[in-house]
Amino acid sequence: MDMTGEYQIAAPRAAVWQALNDPDVLRACIPGCEELEMTSDTTMTAKVVQKIGPVKAKFAGEVELVNIIVEESYTIQGEGKGGVAGFAKGGADVRLTDGDGHTLLTYEAQATVGGKLARLGSRLINSTAKKLADKFFENFHDHLGGKDARDEVAGDAETAEKA
């Protein structure tokens, strides 16, 4: 599965970068996140509960940040295991640029799933992934003080399954 998105966040780029690297902010913004801890300057562990169609799973995983260009971009790569539900692994390239009174955050993500999750079908997986991404960025935008100035363009993310 491949997914891309673009979000306008009503905050300066430095503030957006700081929030993207703050485990407390991420824990509050990631849907279903129960735990998120920094284990080094570039690695985190997380526990997230998600319901995808009829499958509910608690994922435990690790995430690493690589290709870091401070206040500009990084690549997130990681894997989560959900017991009998299966696994998810992948990565995302995240880029920040200055906009007119906002920061433009763009991402390109790739993910694969296995186990029971893989049997649910690509439409359900893609739809759920898009909803989770949109919810994360809505929470993230609101956390940075953008509740009243949310830009409707922010939710324009496209999802396409990669063969």
Overall body shape: globular
Give the tally of structural domains: 1
Radius of gyration: 15 Å
β-strand amount: over 45%
Oligomer: single chain
The largest β sheet comes out as: 8 strands, antiparallel
Q: Could you explain the architecture of this structure?
A:
This is Carbon monoxide dehydrogenase. It comes from Oceaniradius stylonematis. The protein has 163 residues and is an alpha+beta fold. The chain has a single domain, classed as START domain (Alpha-D-Glucose-1,6-Bisphosphate, Chain A, domain 4), CATH 3.30.530. The chain has helices at 13-20, 23-29, 122-143, and strands at 2-9, 33-38, 43-52, 55-69, 73-81, 87-98, 103-114, 157-160. Strand 4 and strand 5 (73-81) form a beta hairpin. Helix 2 crosses helix 3 (122-143). The chain is globular and about 45 Å long. The N and C termini lie close together (8 Å). Mean pLDDT is 83; it is low at 148-163.
How is this structure best summarized?
The protein is an alpha+beta fold and about 160 residues long. It is built from three helices and eight strands; from the N terminus they run E-H-H-E-E-E-E-E-E-H-E.
Describe the secondary-structure layout.
Layout: E1 2-9, H1 13-20, H2 23-29, E2 33-38, E3 43-52, E4 55-69, E5 73-81, E6 87-98, E7 103-114, H3 122-143, E8 157-160
